Amino acid sequence: MKQLVLLFSLCAMMAVQANAQRRGASASSNYETAVGIRVNPWLVGGTIKHFIAGPHAIEGLITTNVSNRSNVTFTALYEYHIAPFPKPEFRLYFGGGVHLGIYDRFDYDHDRWLRHGNGTYVTPGMDGIVGLEYKFKKIPLVVSGDLKPFFNFTGETNFVGEEIGGASVRYTF
Hints:
This protein has helices spanning 2-20, 105-108, 110-116, and strands at residues 33-39, 43-53, 56-65, 72-82, 90-104, 120-135, 141-147, 150-152, 165-172. It is α+β, with helices and mostly antiparallel strands. A hairpin with a 2-residue loop joins strand 2 (43-53) and strand 3 (56-65). The protein is elongated, with a radius of gyration of 17 Å. The model is unreliable at 1-28 (pLDDT under 50). Keywords: Signal. This is Outer membrane protein with beta-barrel domain.
C-alpha cells in the first residue's frame, strides 16, 4: 500500500510540474490535467487525466481491491470527449486501453491456488471505457461515473465482472 501511495504522489508531482509549463486549457474540456481518486464497492485507487489535444485525453489508473490490498492493477486509457448535452459542463467520453494486473492467486484464480498454493501472478489485459463527467464552474473539481469493462489474457478474471463501474473525483489544474 505504501508503494501505491508513493507512486500516486509521484504522478501528482509530475502533473504539477507539467502544469507549470501549461499551454492553456483545452477549449473542449475547460481543464488540462486532473488528479484524484476512483472508487467502487470493490476497488479504490488513484487517477490522473491529461488532455493531449482538443477532445483527446489519456488517463492513468492505479487501483487495488478494498478487501485484499496485495492486488494492484495499472491501467492506461485513451479517451475521446464529446459534449452532446446543452450544458457544456457535462461531457460524455469513451475509449479504450490496456492494463497490467498483479493478483493474488487465492483471490483471483482459485484453481491455480489449489494446484500451486499461495503466490501472485501477473496478467496483461484490455479495457474499454464509457462515462459521463461534470466539471464545476466555480471550483477546480471534476466528478465522473463510468463503466470500464476489461478482459484479462490469463487467469480466471477474463470476463466483464462487478468491478467494471466506478466514480471518480479529480482536482483540476
